[in-house]
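DATA SHEET
Item: assembly model
Revision: 1
Owner: S.N.
Input lines:
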Amino acid sequence: MRSEFEFIRNLKKKYDLERIGDDCAVLPKDPKTDLVITADLLVEDIDFRLDWTRPEFIGYKALAVSLSDVAAMGATPKWAMLSIGVPGKVWPGKFVDKFYEGWFELAAQYNLELIGGDVSRTPEKIVVDSIVAGEVPKGKAILRSGAKPGDLIFMTGAVGGASGGLGMLESGFRFSTAGKKRKRLIARQLRPNPRVDIGNQLSDAKLATAMIDISDGFSSDLSHICMANGTGATITNLPADSDLYEYFSDDAVTDLALNGGEDFELMFTVSPKRVSELEGLSVIEVGVITADANKIELIRGETAKHLRPGGYRHF
Amino acid sequence: MRSEFEFIRNLKKKYDLERIGDDCAVLPKDPKTDLVITADLLVEDIDFRLDWTRPEFIGYKALAVSLSDVAAMGATPKWAMLSIGVPGKVWPGKFVDKFYEGWFELAAQYNLELIGGDVSRTPEKIVVDSIVAGEVPKGKAILRSGAKPGDLIFMTGAVGGASGGLGMLESGFRFSTAGKKRKRLIARQLRPNPRVDIGNQLSDAKLATAMIDISDGFSSDLSHICMANGTGATITNLPADSDLYEYFSDDAVTDLALNGGEDFELMFTVSPKRVSELEGLSVIEVGVITADANKIELIRGETAKHLRPGGYRHF
């Protein structure tokens, strides 16, 4: 069965859709500025479960995932739309108000204006479509393409925590009752923080040759970068969330860091000549882009493991 | 229980959302141009039923409802995004491809570019969020506000057909087997055509003082116009779809024309001094804006009936 990635590639080809394939579409705005825009669908019982989270966390996360896409383009978020569908039994309660409170809590951090959207009834499950637009100086959006062999690969933070938190939820732990470290992991799953500020710093400094956010998973998103550039990559330092080691075996931690999604850290590449300019930024060097198309290796001591993209797929 | 209209009014007030409340949000694009943008959520078993329609009709209608909002601003559609969520059982079949075929059939008529969106899994029902953006010369978007007492009210076509078609579907008639007139009504429900061209002509001629599309229903959308202007209205000629009279009583036809939604005709107002300039445009004069705030009357012969907004509400 075709995955959603294959489906989108076919659609792009069939209908000649040039702007599809990056974290955001890039459109000309005015002579000095490009507009970037993204949409993210969140569905109850697929992306969140009401008994595991809070309405305000769902609102916060709905915005966070789209802000993260805007951040991955090096753009500054400007405005947003929000479409929400809720069943008749949910509408009279507090869900919708709390949902918007969470959304506006994060929006306020970036002076983001809500300009529109839709409100609808659904038969059973809550659905949210989150749309965020940002601005970037003309021609300066940081794409998935643009990396060259020899460019070093960096991350804005560790990965695996969000899916470790999901594991905690699946094991019956809850945000309100969990201990400190478990709560931190669960929070990474339920209420992620997009890396908008550092994305903007990288954009201002014109340092990143390519960038993506970790939504599908480290291995999957790294393979998106490699495919966009016809390159491979060698990972020498997989930055796994340190909270994970207390609850998971080393192998399980590696698997979470490689294939767990939704960490919303940024992965970006920098020319080796300019790496010194990253000083002062809180980033982690994880590897290097290579000329071997689509060969992605994880080096651990003496052993090299060939990585296959293993992140989340809807289909 | 609060309706979705009350909810949106409260949200607008609570979070100071100035751009919400028209068919589209209006945003500055460049020194000469404004961007208008709208989002419409369509949900299976709320907005469409798979056994009543065709996948390509759903794609066509998803785009039509948003194009209609852009048309109601007098704007020219430019680009679109499409988020679609489908259950696992639907993904392997032809639904998704046929859906996009219908969408692109309408998009091609306006050289509309699909620039992004999302593809997701849902637990059970299909959901679609349709986003369309258009452009209009700066400051020239036609709002719901702008009408003055004495302005004449026009429609681009008759109403009630779409909900008449829905009645046919509810009675067991189907698009593929219905006779000519029933088929025409059912098509108005399943595959509506947005009035983009005439919206653009009205915009170019700077004739409309206010405009809205008939999505909620004639009485409801007229009341939106009156509320936005602090006016009332007198309707002397309710333009009911002529196909309806063969299947419905006169009273039922009046009810469908007043309160049936989704006809996607445009309702607009014109200063009496400029009415002669409408010559050559296919429009119907239906009434006049009055100074009596929110008093909306339907005149039929000697009798005047006070109209309450009675269109479709989700909540």
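QC remark: The first strand of chain B starts at residue 25 and ends at 30.
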